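A.,

Following up on our hallway conversation. Structure tokens first:
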């Protein structure tokens, strides 16, 4: 339910400096864009569930309510989506599961030096933070000290107290559209604001971390089967060799009663074939089922 396509993972996100209230209207209908979402994003200190302020960072992202965002949507798996009630947020699953936070619990953040209580209305998963990476420079997931919160615009603006009403534009490209061309069109529409930076999907921290993780798994998936196959083959050769040597009198008896070399050969290689086929079937089924736990 939280795949890139279903949740409309942004093809790029541009950070806007100096934006005004008219930004959403100006970027609507952006050429080459299938979907566009303007939002306000910022980081705050947070109080961990154990009551300590010890480097916990809460990233607050504005989303429409009660409608879902057009780009970088979220899927609620516990509780409910926002309905516009002030002081309510959605909490991304990694931090919630690490600290055993449930829908209906209270989370505290520090806004302008004041500790503010926020009610967790729902727990969500999102393509944007499939792995909760803070930034491109800090891609290692840190669910212990990094929380992602989604709040309606009024709550987000009240918490962040930014001078600018919006600071990001997330864009999903239309089929066949060129990112550079769309960024150039966006640059012409930001009004008094300027594009301070653009991060494409390839460089997005969570996506980059996920690709590194999958690449590591791909290398392991290539190396480990060959290692186990080699170990199993050596073991099987040793066992069959010992069996043949132990049963040399039986082999002589089989030849004496009329069994040919091929029949004797198949008698012993059949052990290896049965073990190999049984192991392949069991391993394939178990690998398929257990692979779901990783991917």
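Then the amino acids I'd put at each of the 295 positions:
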């Amino acid at each position: 339910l939280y795949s890139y396509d279903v949740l409309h993972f942004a093809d790029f996100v541009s950070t806007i400096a100096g934006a005004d209230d008219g930004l959403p209207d100006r970027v609507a209908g952006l050429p080459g864009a299938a979907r566009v979402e303007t939002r306000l994003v910022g980081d705050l200190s947070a109080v961990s569930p154990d009551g300590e302020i010890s480097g916990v960072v809460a990233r607050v992202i504005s989303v429409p309510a009660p409608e879902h965002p057009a780009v970088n949507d979220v899927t609620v798996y516990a509780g409910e989506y926002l309905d516009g009630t002030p002081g309510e947020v959605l909490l991304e699953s990694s931090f919630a599961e690490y600290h055993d936070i449930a829908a209906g619990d209270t989370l505290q953040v520090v806004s302008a030096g004041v500790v503010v209580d926020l009610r967790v209305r729902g727990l969500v998963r999102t393509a944007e933070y499939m792995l909760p990476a803070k930034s491109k420079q800090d891609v290692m997931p840190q669910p212990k000290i990094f929380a992602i919160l989604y709040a309606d615009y009024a709550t987000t603006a009240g918490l962040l107290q930014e001078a600018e009403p919006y600071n990001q534009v997330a864009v999903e490209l239309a089929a066949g559209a060129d990112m550079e061309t769309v960024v150039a069109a966006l640059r012409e529409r930001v009004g008094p604001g300027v594009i301070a930076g653009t991060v494409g999907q390839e460089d997005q921290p969570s996506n980059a971390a996920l690709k590194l993780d999958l690449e590591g798994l791909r290398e392991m998936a290539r190396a480990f089967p060959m290692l186990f196959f080699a170990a199993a083959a050596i073991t099987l050769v040793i066992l069959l060799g010992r069996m043949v040597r132990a049963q040399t009198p039986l082999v002589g008896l089989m030849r004496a009663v009329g069994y040919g070399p091929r029949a004797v050969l198949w008698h012993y290689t059949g052990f290896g074939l049965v073990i190999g086929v049984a192991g392949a079937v069991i391993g394939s089924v178990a690998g398929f089922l257990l692979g779901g736990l990783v991917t």
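Residues 262 and 268 are 10 Å apart (CA to CA). Curious whether your intuition agrees with the design.

B.
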